[in-house]
Amino acid sequence: MYREALLGEIGELTLSYISSMEEDKELVEEVIQSLIAHVRELREGKLVDEETAGEIESELKKLLHDPAPLFEIGAEDIHEAIEIFLKERLGKTEGYLPLGKSRNDHVSAALRLKTKKLLKEQMREIIKLRFLLLEKAEKYSRVPMPGFTHLQPAQPSTFAHYLLAIEEGLADYTKALLTALNIADRSPLGAGAVGGTSAPLDRHRLGSELFSGIVTNTIYATSSRDFMALACSVDTSLSVFLSRIAEDIVVFSTPNFDYLSLPEEHLATSSMMPQKRNPATMEVARAWAGEAIGHLTAILSVLKGLPTGYNLDIQEANKHAFRILKGTLATLTVFRDLISKIEPKAHNMLRDSHLFPILATDVAEKMAISSGRPYREVYTEVAKMIRESRDVGEFYKKVEERYGIKIDLSEGLKKPVTGSPNPDKIKEAIEMARKRLVEDSKAVC
């Protein structure tokens, strides 16, 4: 439709290669919403009369309810398909719609609306997940478990301490996603193809129905996909964060650790081995982070080195962005469901808290503080004692006999520093996290 007057009809080969109709299924609602806002601005600005604007808006609303007919049209993209459809319905009246608009500003608007929608859904899932983590932390504030570095038993911790680490990470990502949302929530409508339009559109009024502000510069408004790349970058980092938690859950649920009981609906079994209880959803979540990195790399590779202004290349980034935004949302939903049903096996966590010398650091610190000796000197002495002991029980017995230091796991948890597994500090941390979460909930909603 667009090319015919200048270039003639398009060949099937070219159309099938450059058409974005398949990807545009993701955007059809947002495209139509942008067009409705545009028609209303044409009417408000008295650029189109009430009757004409009403006819066009009525047809657009029908399409919003049922866009299926658009995908039966051979078109370069959804924008062309809508114009072809409206021309068949309205004849010449359809021709008033394109005044003061370009595909460039309307594609950007639709992508921003879609990004906004998915980011809001993600943040709602994160808020729910964070509430769950705090509930679980409160419930298991006194369940000891080893804390790990290098996947080696390191220092005493609690299950609540571990859960609060996840919650605080998600709190950071809530802030990052809010920033990405605020960047996306600006209207490019009225920016035209690159240099604006001679039609006297009020861009603030035009954008106010769908966005909280505008992208001021018309070049940046139409040609930038930074809002999308930023959102997908945050999502990819979030997916990597979640993949590490998924790995923890996979490891901690193995019979070798046996720290966690996973809900059966998140497990799969073997086609050959009838005993297998595989943590299927967490394995997929682990893999998803790798996929997200790949999709983000594709987006950045498409955008890299493009000249300023709209280029058709950036159309090819959309499918990767949709995959990241929707895949991250799905992963968050799965995590929320799993966390709601997961239970710690406290006796096994306690078993390993006694089985390994995770109080060695406490011993060295107490010796250094009580004697006034340099910590490194005491550290070396304790390390030698561990090396010379057959097991942790013998090590602790030597410490008590030689230095009069009684080894006690509950005392080892009572670190005086903020953020430690000390049950009193955990209680404070939960209270602070709840306040932070209430504020974040208000911002998200």
Helix content: 55-70%
CATH superfamily of the largest domain: Fumarase/aspartase (Central domain)
Terminal Cα span: 42 Å
* Shape category: elongated
Assigned CATH architecture of the largest domain: Up-down Bundle
Task: Report the major sheet.
Answer: 2 strands, antiparallel
Q: What is the CA-atom radius of gyration, in angstroms?
A: 29 Å
CATH class of the largest domain: Mainly Alpha
Query: Reading side by side through the largest sheet, how are the strands ordered?
Result: 1-2
**Could you say how many structural domains there are in total?**
3
Architecture overview:
This protein is elongated. Helix content is 64%, strand content 4%. The protein has 3 domains: 4-99, Fumarase C, Chain B, domain 1 (Orthogonal Bundle), CATH 1.10.275; 106-196 and 216-351, Fumarase/aspartase (Central domain) (Fumarase C, Chain A, domain 2); 353-444, no CATH class. Helix 12 (280-303) packs antiparallel against helix 13 (318-341). The mean pLDDT is 94. The chain starts with a helix and ends with a helix. With 445 residues, the protein is mainly alpha-helical. It contains 19 helices and 4 strands.
Task: Explain the layout of strands and helices.
Layout: H1 4-7, H2 12-18, H3 21-24, H4 28-44, H5 50-65, H6 78-90, H7 103-139, E1 144-149, E2 152-158, H8 159-184, H9 203-208, H10 218-223, H11 226-252, E3 260-261, H12 280-303, H13 318-341, E4 343-344, H14 346-355, H15 360-371, H16 375-388, H17 392-403, H18 409-413, H19 423-444
Antiparallel strand pairs: 1-2, 3-4
